[in-house]
Amino acid sequence: MRTAEGLSSEQAAQLLKQAGPNQLPAEKPVPQWRKLWGEMTHFFALMLWCAAGLAFIADMPQLAVAIIVVVIVNGVFAHIQQERAQHAAARLRGLLPADVVVRRDGKVRKVHASELVVGDVVLLAAGDRVPADTVLLSAAAFAVDESMLTGESAPVPKIAGDPAWGGTFLVNGYGEASVSATGTGTKLAGIAALTSGAVPPPTPLSQELRRIVRVTAGMALGIAAVFFLASLLVGFQWRDSFLFSIGVAVALVPEGLLPTVTLSLAMGAQRMAGRSGLVRNLEAVETLGSTTFICTDKTGTLTQNRMNAVEVFTVAGPVQVTGQGYAPDGGVQGSGVEGAAKVALAARTASQGRAEFHDGQWRAQGDPMEAAMDVLARRLTGTEAGAAPWRRLPFDPVRRRESALLGADLFCKGAPETVLPVCEAVPGPVKEQVEVMAARGLRVIAVARRQLAGAPEAWQSTPALELETGMELLGLIGLQDPPRPDVADVIRTARQAGLRIAMITGDHPATAAAIARQIGLTGSPELVLEGADLPEDDQILGALLDRDGVVVSRVSPEQKLRVAKALQARGHVVAMTGDGVNDGPALREADIGVAMGLSGTDVAREAADLVLLDDHFGTIVAAIEQGRATYANIHRFLTYHLTDNVAELTPFVIWALSGGRFPLALGVLQILALDIGTDLLPALALGAEPPGRRILARPPERRHLMDRQLIIRVFCILGPVEAAMEMAVFSAVLAGGGWSRGQVPEAGLLMAASGAAFTAVVLGQLANAFACRSATVPPWKLGWGTNRLLVWAVLAELAILAVCLYIPYLATLLGQAPPPPAGFLLALLAAPAVLLADWIHKSARRRLRRSRT
Ligand code: ADP
Ligand code: MG
């Protein structure tokens, strides 16, 4: 195999300074004003623009100007929120791992992909993303997925001398390549520049949100139109009818909703990242919240992925090997140590991973299992790795074994089921021993050898399946991979949260079952399946797997895909982990594809929605917790916002129903002040509510945002109470001022009454904000300190209220005046009234739930 020496660190540093980092040019940013313009010309904004235009035509310039101010303030606000969300998303992308293996200073080292320079020699293995444009120096069974360049997804085979383009994925084989162009010089950069204008397709959440928003807006317009016609028929002035209709439409349109949701998702994503879970698109935050089924692999997620070869079995008997971690010293015990040493050397030759001493510690370099083979060989023979093989037949999940050719010998190691059948004579005790070792939770690897006849050159390009036959079995190696210490606790938590967990692993059924038992994953009755035995029929498969604690062993990537589909067909929201080259389809099919940040392949990470920066199973559960919390927050501020709408709409309805005889309690401008003034900050603060303590103590729910609970709370409980207080306060002040039914109230009195009604709504909303913090307990049972933002938001809300009432110019513009003291006191009662209604509702629900169970 021809390899180049690579650059020295100094050369590389120099070149890096000249050429700049190996990064794609940052996407040409859409100019700020364009984005801002977009915020002011979307569907709602256009509706409001129309309203403003009509107001002008109807000779109501003040109203028109006010509406325009609303559109602008709203647009600016939405823009700021979107920017913050995008910044958060960009920061998260920067956390994605991007290490490359290169030869520098004659040594194999890991560097960040952005540090690559022309002339670097990179080592590529299946699953890697080619980090820059390169020319292959050597290639074995090398095939790349170039679909990101050509759109053609069939793997393209490559040989030494061929180019391998940056951004493509190595899906098979391995090789070394010399970097020919980096960063902006790459072919991908050219294409990216061409396509950067492409808009990504809408995601399910944004579709759902848009639907909600469209429906509400449609409703608003519909109601407005109906009332417009009705009021004309009743004999209203054209102008009054029109004013009324605009009020209704503006009151009902949820202007600030979309950006608030986006920001809330971004904050959720950021919190997940703080707990090592990286989502690759914001909507995944919401999907995580509704996850019901986790399919996890074993190695590295549930276990530590710190392999230690503790036993070697040969026909002479078992040999026990002791030692700490990847340190080469250790003890040996048993008969047939010589045979065991041969097994270890063969296994090491067939491995690429090594144990290395750096930073004061022995560590695994490369695959931990292969590093363990190196350690085993050192412990048994005291030797360091010898000559490098001249050809490798790398591991793939279908063959489940790996071989290397050294001189005229082929050394092979892999899963016993796939190695034993290609060996010539397998003594009976060996097969038994596989089961015995696996039942102890050991990963069992069979090691075999074949002496090739004739010159090695004759075997240069023979396919793996032809080479790996007629072998001589040397022995078995048992590797220990202890479970992560806290994984049993995490599984218990996940159970409480109503999540079902299945272990989907490539390992031996007995090994998998033993680990599953150790960590308390096994369900009762125990169900351990093998990939090959899965039922053909998808419906039967779904029914079989739809329970907790199933272990599926020896699965192929295709079977993983089937598992994901079968569970989804049963209504589950499935999170599926994967690390291999071929896991892409299963990861994409699952609702949440989960990839490993430390050990997985780039291919898997590219297909995933969630990347575990620490490879830990617990991170999936933590992400689900945060997802639920974020969903709950969106639900919270939706409840809050819609309650306000009820209070805003009621005065118009009463006005219209009374045929204009009962005066209008709130004007259009007051409604706008509520929507974009007092209401905005508390809604944002509700979106930042930290996860409740019991959020993982409840079963998952897959709900629409506008579910029954929300509708009941808003339209039957909180909304009516708030509206009733508003109208009561309004009538009381009017009555106190000497107004009686049927009269037209004197202007000053009407403004004071309207100010009282406005105050009542603001105070009701203040209480509502606290009431919305929890769906189950009254607000006084929650700590104040847990959402400081809300306290500030509420103070701001009160300040805005004061400004709207006591700055004469503004108050007059809004059509209100400070209420008389009695009216003010009455308005204060709106807050306790809302809290009381909330408390009664929550207690009743609790009692109902208790009587049900
Ligand atoms: P897991 O789900 O535990 O990560 P994998 O799909 O990675 O399982 O591996 C499946 C089986 O393939 C292992 O149990 C082992 O027998 C075999 N195997 C895995 N990696 C290698 C390797 N590098 N060399 C040889 N055999 C391997
Ligand atoms: Mg694995």
Measured on Cα atoms, how large is the radius of gyration?
A: 34 Å
Strands side by side in the biggest sheet? 8-25-24-23-9-20-22-21
Tertiary shape: elongated
Residues in helices, as a percent range: 40-55%
Q: Count of helices?
A: 30
> Which fold name corresponds to the CATH topology of the largest domain?
Calcium-transporting ATPase, transmembrane domain
Number of strands: 25
Bound ions, cofactors and other small molecules, one mention each: adenosine-5'-diphosphate, magnesium ion
CATH class descriptor name of the largest domain: Mainly Alpha
Number of domains: 4
Poorly predicted tracts of residues? none
Structural class: alpha+beta
β-strand percent reads 15-25%
Mean pLDDT over the full residue set: 88
The CATH H-level superfamily of the largest domain is Calcium-transporting ATPase, transmembrane domain
Distance between the termini: 70 Å
Please give the largest β-sheet.
8 strands, mixed
Provide the CATH architecture of the largest domain: Up-down Bundle
Can you tell me about this structure?
It is a multi-pass membrane protein. The chain is α+β, with helices and mostly antiparallel strands and 853 residues long. It folds into four domains: 9-26 and 101-195, Calcium-transporting ATPase, cytoplasmic transduction domain A (Distorted Sandwich), CATH 2.70.150; 259-272 and 625-640 and 660-852, Calcium-transporting ATPase, transmembrane domain; 277-303 and 484-615, HAD superfamily/HAD-like (Rossmann fold); 308-480, Calcium-transporting ATPase, cytoplasmic domain N, CATH 3.40.1110. It has 30 helices and 25 strands. The chain has an eight-stranded mixed beta sheet with strand order 8-25-24-23-9-20-22-21, sandwiched between helices. An eight-stranded antiparallel beta sheet has the order 12-11-10-19-18-17-16-15. Strands 1, 2, 3, 4, 5, 6 and 7 form a seven-stranded antiparallel beta sheet that branches. A hairpin with a 2-residue loop joins strand 13 and strand 14 (361-365). Helix 7 packs antiparallel against helix 8 (238-252), helix 26 packs parallel to helix 29 and helix 27 crosses helix 28 (808-814). It starts with 8 loop residues before the first helix and ends with a helix. Adenosine-5'-diphosphate binds at residues 297-299, 367, 369-370, 395, 397, 400-402, 413-415, 443, 445, 505-508.
